[in-house]
């Protein structure tokens, strides 16, 4: 019997390029360019939020995170808004890392020999030769890195081609070219430029058509530094406090992104502010949706510490986003560290190496021959004992250690 019934096909929602809904709170996510950082944030960076990156002392690793953020946006076809006061924004875009699977990216050095991935036969042979205790064979392997298949993978030895960069919309804001005389005027000009970009390029939620949805990536480099006139021209600043202009700007930026298909990464040198006012830094963290801090080992005592010899710094999660939920996504551990390899930057779980100093010292003590007159250790010899605070009948002189044991009545 013929029927006219047809199953209605479910229409998939149209998401912007390079985005996906979160499995935790159904929030639209984009990648930061670093897979391990995406995993720590709950799968990615939510659209309409602000990520605060507290810079390391030299600012090299935070600048690298900003490049990853821009490179991921260019590979996904997102529009880019870049603001900087220390260097030309166009120079930052010219030095972005290229994607691994991008044929247009140029390599700055020759590719290494085919020793990165050994053949399966050699891997299986090495696995068969490895012998461990039977009680540990059924335990799962420890994963130091965080796995996330969202976004692209980038190679620091390759640079992104100019044709790929010019294919996306780019808006630059150079703070050195403005005529602002105070931080209030400078941040007001920056906010007006961001607001104008959102309205002119139709990134607003209410004005963007369904078929033309795209994401605007906003990268603000080293806000709050003296180059942004922080503390130099603020009329509300005092010698013991900071100007309230930067917290006001973050508050207005966060409200502006809530109604737009945009996401922001802001780097701030908080190490310049923590020495004077720690509460000011905590206020900046609360005004952001997520905050991370990079603690580099360069120039510190930890650089020579053998415990951290495999890492370049510690990675601190100051706050995590709580969107459409009562509690944020919590990673497996908060003991994190980062390392910079030749080709990539990664965030891993902090694993301390085995402590071998005590074993080595014991081996040296055993190998050292005893001095003349000292009791020799060996089979058939007995240690001296103290009974009731007096030494056993041996005729030997009391040592300071035996007097301490007898005085405090320590039993073995």
Sheet with most strands: 9 strands, mixed
Series of H and E elements: EEHEEHEHEEHEHEHEHEHEEEEHEEH
Give the percentage of residues in beta strands: 15-25%
Helix content: 25-40%
Ends apart, CA distance between termini: 94 Å
Mean pLDDT: 78
Strand order of the largest sheet: 9-5-10-11-4-12-13-14-15
Task: Name its key features.
412 residues; alpha/beta; 3-stranded antiparallel β-sheet; 25% helix; 18% strand
Please outline the helices and strands.
Layout lengths: L18 E3 L6 E3 L4 H6 L4 E2 L3 E5 L5 H16 L3 E6 L4 H6 L2 E3 L6 E2 L12 H10 L24 E6 L2 H5 L3 E5 L8 H18 L15 E5 L24 H13 L4 E7 L9 H9 L3 E7 L16 E7 L16 E5 L4 E5 L7 H11 L18 E2 L2 E2 L8 H9 L4
Parallel strand pairs: 4-11, 4-12, 5-9, 5-10, 10-11
Antiparallel strand pairs: 1-2, 2-3, 6-8, 7-8, 12-13, 13-14, 14-15, 16-17
In short:
With 412 residues, this protein is α/β, with parallel strands linked by helices.
Please tell me about this protein's structure.
It is a single chain. The protein is α/β, with parallel strands linked by helices. Helices cover 25% and strands 18% of the residues. It has ten helices and 17 strands. Strands 9-5-10-11-4-12-13-14-15 form a nine-stranded mixed β-sheet, with helices on both faces. The protein is globular.
């Amino acid at each position: 019997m013929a029927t006219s019934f047809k199953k209605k096909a479910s229409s998939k929602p149209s998401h912007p390029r390079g985005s996906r809904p979160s499995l935790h709170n159904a929030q639209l996510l984009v990648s930061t360019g670093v897979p391990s950082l995406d995993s720590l944030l709950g799968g990615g960076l939510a659209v309409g939020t602000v990520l605060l990156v507290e810079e390391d002392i030299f600012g090299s690793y935070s600048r690298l995170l900003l490049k990853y953020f821009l490179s991921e946006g260019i590979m996904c076809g997102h529009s880019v808004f870049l603001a900087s006061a220390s260097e030309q924004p166009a120079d930052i875009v010219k030095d972005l890392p290229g994607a691994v699977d991008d044929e247009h990216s140029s390599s700055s050095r020759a590719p290494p020999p085919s020793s990165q991935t050994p053949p399966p036969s050699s891997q299986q042979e090495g696995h068969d030769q490895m012998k461990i205790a039977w009680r540990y064979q059924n335990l799962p392997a420890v994963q130091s890195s965080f796995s996330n298949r969202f976004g692209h993978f980038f190679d620091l030895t390759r640079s992104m081609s100019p044709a790929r960069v010019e294919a996306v919309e780019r808006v630059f804001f150079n703070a050195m070219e403005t005529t602002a005389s105070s931080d209030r005027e400078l941040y007001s000009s920056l906010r007006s430029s961001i607001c104008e970009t959102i309205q002119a390029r139709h990134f607003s939620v209410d004005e963007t058509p369904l078929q033309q949805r795209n994401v605007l990536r906003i990268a603000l480099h080293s806000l709050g530094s003296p180059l942004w006139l922080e503390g130099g021209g603020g009329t509300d600043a005092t010698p013991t406090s900071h100007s309230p202009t930067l917290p006001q700007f973050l508050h207005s930026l966060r409200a502006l992104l809530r109604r737009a298909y945009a996401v922001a990464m802001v780097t701030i040198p908080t190490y310049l502010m923590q020495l004077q006012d720690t509460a000011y830094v905590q206020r900046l963290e609360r005004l952001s949706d997520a905050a991370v801090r990079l603690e580099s080992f360069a120039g510190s005592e930890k650089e020579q510490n053998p415990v951290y010899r495999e890492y370049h710094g510690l990675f601190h999660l100051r706050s995590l986003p709580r969107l459409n939920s009562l509690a944020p996504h919590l990673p497996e551990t908060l003991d994190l560290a980062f390392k910079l390899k030749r080709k990539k930057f990664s965030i891993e779980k902090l694993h301390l190496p085995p402590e071998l100093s005590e074993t080595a010292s014991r081996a040296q003590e055993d190998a050292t021959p005893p001095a003349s007159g000292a009791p020799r250790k060996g089979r058939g010899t007995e240690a001296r004992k103290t009974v009731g605070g007096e030494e056993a009948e041996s005729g030997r002189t009391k040592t300071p250690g035996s007097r301490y044991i007898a005085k405090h009545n320590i039993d073995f």
